[in-house]
Design brief:
By secondary structure, this protein is mainly β. It contains 1 helix and 15 strands, in the order αβββββββββββββββ. The protein has 2 domains: 87 residues, Roll (SH3 type barrels), CATH 2.30.30; 107 residues, Beta Barrel (Lipocalin), CATH 2.40.128.
């Protein structure tokens, strides 16, 4: 399995230590009127009870992006750990729409990423750009590293694969795995899609809408 949890942890507040699994959707299945609590990933948590509770909540029926699991807990992207008994898994759409401008949501200000996907009768095409900025040169010029991915996106149901390299040389060139889940697009690249520290690893929504 791909280490999707590590990928999503780049943008989430918590660094999730959990089993490796593809992300999936789940719906809050708590009784009507009952809000669900979420818990941090700090030492002793989420098992530590009230001391681990954060300020995020979810309403019954709310759809969550689940990025990991540990015993009776599930990790919801951008929210934290939640008890698995309060969730019901949502089947993935077998033929989701891919078209649109996808923007990394909750990405650090110095590490934006944007991916455009267009699908036609002949297949889908991806056009992405990412940037990483940090610090400045002695002359005051900002240090800015760029990345891109352009070309066919091979789609199979709710998963996609981008590969701009030689298929016979799997360790060379920009490659990325895509998963479409509800309103989300989750992307993991191989670290070879741009300059130093430039990654497309992120959770995306259309136009960056939360």
């Amino acid at each position: 399995m791909k280490q999707w949890i590590a990928v999503l942890g780049l943008l989430a507040a918590a660094q999730v230590q959990a089993q490796n699994e593809l992300p999936h959707l789940a719906r809050v299945a708590a009784p009507a009127g009952e809000k669900v609590d979420f818990y941090e990933n700090s030492r002793g948590c989420p098992e530590g009870g009230d001391a681990c509770r954060n300020d995020r909540r979810a309403e019954p029926g709310e759809e969550l992006l689940i990025t990991g699991s540990r015993d009776e807990w599930r990790h919801a992207w951008s929210k934290g750990w939640v008890r698995a008994a309060l969730l019901a898994d949502v089947p993935a759409d077998a033929q989701p729409a891919w078209d649109g401008i996808w923007v990394a949501t909750e990405a650090p200000e110095n590490h934006p990423a944007r991916i455009a996907i267009a699908c036609r009768a002949g297949g889908c095409r991806v056009d992405g750009e990412a940037k990483w900025t940090n610090g400045a040169l002695p002359n005051g010029e900002r240090i800015e590293n760029l990345g891109s991915m352009q070309g066919p996106l091979r789609v199979d149901g709710n998963r996609g694969r981008f590969n701009d390299g030689n298929p016979l040389m799997p360790d060379i060139g920009c490659k990325a795995d895509f998963v479409r889940l509800g309103r989300y697009l989750v992307v993991q690249d191989n670290g070879q899609c741009g300059g130093y520290n430039v990654r497309f690893d992120a959770v995306y929504t259309l136009d960056g809408k939360p």
